[in-house]
Recover the amino acids of this structure.
């Protein structure tokens, strides 16, 4: 056997004749078409007139824009509200500060006015006392020279210092009010003016006196200051025009609602000697 008989052949098998003919025909047709196109000359390019429409996305965009505008408007409204609140708070603070300053000023003015009124009242009291003392001195000089007895102007005797009955009740009531405040127009129970105290003292025994000092100074029988009895009404000024009254309590002393500085006190007649007296009992 030959050595080459078992070596396989690597050559491709021959193609069938039909396939070769088909391929030759196709190739020939293509080449013919190219040849014809070349003979016809270069082709004229036609302009592109087709319009491409892009999709519209305005729906989502408008929603976003509206939301942004609303947010911006809300921020502006918040800023405006905050500015208004800040302005209101600042205005309120200024008003409060001004009101506080005004209150302090009024309190200081009131304090000064009260101090001034008190000083004027004390000065007026001193002036009135000095005037009454000078007036009594002038009026008592002729009486002393005609009598020739200086003891006639002395205080009432001690025999009239003990009060009983209605006079004792009046004196006891008057003494019980010593220390109470003086208030113009006061009628008790813890603050009095001069005629209010006298009226209340007499009311304890069922006697209703007039309310004011002018009328009380003529409410009874006039008596001499040298012959006083407990319960008699003392007055300062003229009878019927008196500006102050008090109650004689015996022992040369009286109880009266004097003024806002002293209040209701028990004093010696030598402290502020009255002009006259009346007896009601």
């Amino acid at each position: 056997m030959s050595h080459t008989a078992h070596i396989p052949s690597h050559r491709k098998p021959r193609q069938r004749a039909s396939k070769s003919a088909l391929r030759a025909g196709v190739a020939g047709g293509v080449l013919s078409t190219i040849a014809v196109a070349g003979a016809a000359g270069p082709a004229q390019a036609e302009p592109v007139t087709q319009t491409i429409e892009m999709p519209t996305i305005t729906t989502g965009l408008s929603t976003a824009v509206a939301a942004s505008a609303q947010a911006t408007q809300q921020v502006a409204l918040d800023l405006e509200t905050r500015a208004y609140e800040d302005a209101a708070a600042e205005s309120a603070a200024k008003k409060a500060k001004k009101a506080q300053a005004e209150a302090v000023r009024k309190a200081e003015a009131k304090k000064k006015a009260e101090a001034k009124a008190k000083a004027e009242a004390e000065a007026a009291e001193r002036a009135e006392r000095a005037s009454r003392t000078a007036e009594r001195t002038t009026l008592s000089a002729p009486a002393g020279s005609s009598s020739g007895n200086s003891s006639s102007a002395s205080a009432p005797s001690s025999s009239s210092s003990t009060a009983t009955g209605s006079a004792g009740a009046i004196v006891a009531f008057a003494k019980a009010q010593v220390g109470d405040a003086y208030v113009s127009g006061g009628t008790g129970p813890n603050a009095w003016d001069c005629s209010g105290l006298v009226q209340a003292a007499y009311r304890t025994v069922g006697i209703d006196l007039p309310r004011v000092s002018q009328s009380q100074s003529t409410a009874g029988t006039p008596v001499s200051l040298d012959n006083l009895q407990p319960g008699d009404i003392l007055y300062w000024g003229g009878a019927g025009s008196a500006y102050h009254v008090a109650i004689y309590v015996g022992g040369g002393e009286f109880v009266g609602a004097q003024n806002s500085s002293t209040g209701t006190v028990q004093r010696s007649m030598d402290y502020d000697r009255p002009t006259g007296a009346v007896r009601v009992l």
Q: What stands out?
A: Helices lie at 17-40, 58-147, 165-176, 194-203, 213-216. The first strand starts at residue 181 and ends at 182. Residues 72-136 form one domain.
